[in-house]
Design goal:
The protein is mostly helical. It is built from eight helices and no strands. The longest helix is centred in the middle third of the chain and has 54 residues.
Length: 201
């Protein structure tokens, strides 16, 4: 009986020692103050390591380029956007003026051997290329082409409009298309007279 009791006591002692060993081992794996385990003396990651350092460096290195890129793209976009808005504004204003003139002179188109719808549609198409084009210039180009096209096949409405879009006057455009200065002047006077008469009718 004595031997059995001694063996039992020894087993209890061994169990207690094993439990203490587990507790000590667990404490050794935790950082100071009960914090997470660490492999670096004194706790915390080694110098120069960690997520914050990588993110901070990446942000610093890219911030200048990223900000500059965004600013440049914005400036470029705004430039294109502003120009587009200005073109749209001019087209709208000139188109509205054309509508007013056609309403104020309902017989003009017929007296020029065309229709108000044809003049309106043609003018709106021309504005897409040259938003600065005035309705009077479009009507004049149409009339000049009708008057001169039979004897000067290269003088078309499209050719005259192209000259106006490039910044030239109607007279200079007619000269570029083969007329003399005197012929161009006479042709313009005739077209202007016909347009005035058409408006009065």
């Amino acid at each position: 009986m004595t031997v059995i009791r001694n063996i039992a006591r020894l087993g209890v002692v061994l169990l207690v020692l094993a439990g203490l060993q587990v507790v000590v081992t667990a404490q050794g794996r935790r950082g100071p103050g009960g914090g997470p385990p660490t492999s670096h003396p004194g706790g915390g990651p080694p110098s120069g390591a960690g997520v914050d350092r990588g993110v901070g460096t990446s942000s610093d290195r890219s911030a200048g380029r990223a900000d500059t890129g965004r600013a440049t793209a914005s400036d470029r976009s705004n430039g294109r956007s502003d120009a587009g808005l200005e073109r749209a504004r001019l087209q709208r204003q000139n188109s509205e003026r054309a509508d007013h003139e056609l309403r104020d002179h309902p017989g003009m188109a017929a007296n020029l051997h065309t229709t108000a719808n044809d003049l309106r549609a043609g003018y709106q198409a021309a504005l897409a290329t040259n938003p600065n084009l005035k309705f009077g210039q479009y009507v004049a180009a149409t009339r000049l082409a009708a008057n001169l096209g039979a004897t000067n096949p290269n003088i078309t409405r499209e050719a005259i409009l192209a000259g106006l879009a490039s910044g030239e006057s109607i007279g200079q455009t007619l000269q570029d298309l083969g007329l003399s200065k005197r012929q161009a002047k006479d042709a313009q006077k005739r077209a202007e007279r016909e347009i005035k008469e058409a408006k009065r009718s």
